[in-house]
Please model this.
Amino acid sequence: MSAPVLVTGAAGKTGLAVIRSLTARGAQVRALVRHGIQRETAASAGAVEARIVDLADGDALREAFRGVGAVYYICPNLRPDETELSRLAIESTLDVGVERFVYHSVLHPQTEKMPHHWQKLRVEETLLESGLQWTILQPTAYMQNMLAVWDEVIEEGIFRVPYPVTSRIALVALENVAEVAAKVISEDGHTGATYELVGTAPLTQTAVAGALGRALEQSVVAVETPTERVREALEGQGLGPYQVDTLMKMFDYYGRFGLEGSPRILSWLLGRQPTSLAEFVQRQVADGRS
Model:
């Protein structure tokens, strides 16, 4: 693809991983960020251009989208107006004549009990009716999320989770998601496809703790954090009421139903087996996080 690929949410962990994967394939990337300081972050990942754009500003979006060959759209996490922001992005893409749109959705967006999943289903519906050449990616929970508690795992041998330790959740390595993102943008044959991106079978949190322990060569125990402490911790991070309530509903859903999926689609897209949890944890240890 000769025209640049535009990536929104470019300074987040997903956006940066997608930029790195696209540039590895030789793509030119135009990054959209929210703050000036994030320009350097996007550039360090390989973006040739980074623009500060408010996704609620239609005029700014249309100007940013002009001249690109494809849009990889990541909405800011846990936004109550995600449906409206995403519709504006889709409309702006159409307005300037960009035909290719890849949407970063989520595994099982049809789960109404999780508001941020449900909003993504509404966005998918809009995209299906848009007339664009679209592809939808639906990743499950990232393995990288556990790095938030990595120090506690090493120092105390405790893997704390905000739901029962019996909860079964399928995981995926972020770099596998980014590789597929670059693949579906760079190659023909993915228009009209919706791909679930799942790297592992559903795993209990006890099984995850076991994988951590084996890689670290120490005992690691999965422990459920009480609901009230989870809420207090989220509020202490400065999250607003919508973000806190949405995360609490997600944790409740995981506890009741898990988040299950199959690695077969991702295996086919990668042409190999996805990164396993054991491989991921061993890599973190080798990288010196222990």
About this structure: The domain at 5-139+173-198+261-272 is CATH 3.40.50.720 (Rossmann fold). The longest strand covers residues 133-139.
